Amino acid sequence: MSSAPWSKWQLLLARLGLKNADSQKLSALPLSQRLTVACCAAVALYLVTQISLQLSAKDAAVVLLASMGASSVLLFALPNSPLAKPWSFLAGHFIPACIGLACSHLFTDLALMAAVTIGLVLFFMYLCECMHPPGGATALVPVIASQQGLLSLDFLWYPVGLNMLVMFCVALLLNKLVLKRAILAAPTQAFDPVHQHQDPPPLKRLGVQPDDLMSALNNADTVMDIREQDLELLYQQAQQHAFARQHQDLLCADIMSRDLITVTADTPLFKAWQLLRQHKIQLLPVVDAQQQLLGVISLVDFLKEMPLHDYGLFIGFFRKFWQQQSDHKQQQRPVSSLMQQQVVTVTEKQQVVAVVPLLSDLGLHHVPVLDQQQRLCGLISQSDLIAALYQLQLQPCSEGKNSA
């Protein structure tokens, strides 16, 4: 295939908005997740329709199908959008329904009625912080129906209230039970789940803060369809990408410790304890004869064996624990009985930036490094990372002095 037809095809895709290198993809979800979201939206709309048909007249049940279908796109496909918040969904339907019903009684000209209705809907959506595009369709239902006959106040409860309640409950349950995510939920406060305190994680303590992002969003001339939490996440990922681009030659293999103290799964626990004390380290990788990583054992794993309920009992339990190790049976207890098998690892060819969130926000102190054959070849500690970042900070300074 010649290059000219191929370039024209690429140009056509770009003009259609299907391929554009300088913009984000419309959806970064994998195919399986997209199918799950689509099925959940279909189930939600099916239940809304069936329940409405059972509890109200047929004409009233189907009149809001279009707006509920549009809402399902937001609730399931764009759950983190400000337009999909609980207040935006509920008030974004009910307030426009009230406005549309009132305008249908105040005006007789259809064009004027529709224009005033949509104008007021937009104004009150801004005023009440409940922007929800499908609400515009809800507002026009009594406007269109006025050509056949004026709707009564019952329209606000049947079908508007009924449809909103059913869609809200179904979306809440499906997202929590099937999609395993908490849409229609209020934003969570800053909290470090690893260390259980209110301080933000280490990576969030410098640079742009949440208040900075909120100020930028609130001072924008338009409403942006993105949460401040998502914008903060994008900013952090952009920082990591920029660091990886600027230091793409710095790999995990460059900063890892290579002379490792390891044990096997059959090593007695007392021997592992002696190695930890002798070398003044906190963690031992557990490997097999082919250097395949089986797990790790650390000081914390030994301490977990002691049922400490009070700090004052620490010495007593500690002495009792190691007295038990003097028994022949306890001495032969293998490392495999205490080691952690679920281990977070990196590869030697990965960039150092991949280790930063593991050793900071995830709360790890050591990360094993594997080679291309998945064999243990090194270990990166918090000290290794700090030293590497310090050296990187010194390099621009030394280069500046040499150039001067």
How would you describe this protein?
This protein is 54% helix and 6% strand. By secondary structure, it is mainly alpha-helical. It has 17 helices and five strands.
Query: What characteristic shape results from the CA principal axes?
Result: elongated
Number of helices: 17
How many domains, in number, for the residues? 2
Structural category is: mainly alpha
Tell me, rounded to a whole number, the average pLDDT.
Answer: 80
> Quick one: how many beta strands?
5
The description of the largest β-sheet is:
3 strands, mixed
Low-confidence stretches: 184-188
Proportion in β-strands: 5-15%
Give the CA-CA distance, first to last residue: 54 Å
Spatial strand arrangement across the major sheet: 3-4-5
Order of helices and strands: HHHHHHHHHHHHEEHHHEHEEH
Helix content: 40-55%
Summarize the structure.
The protein has two domains: 149 residues, no CATH class; 145 residues, CBS-domain. It is 54% helix and 6% strand. The chain is built from 17 helices and five strands.
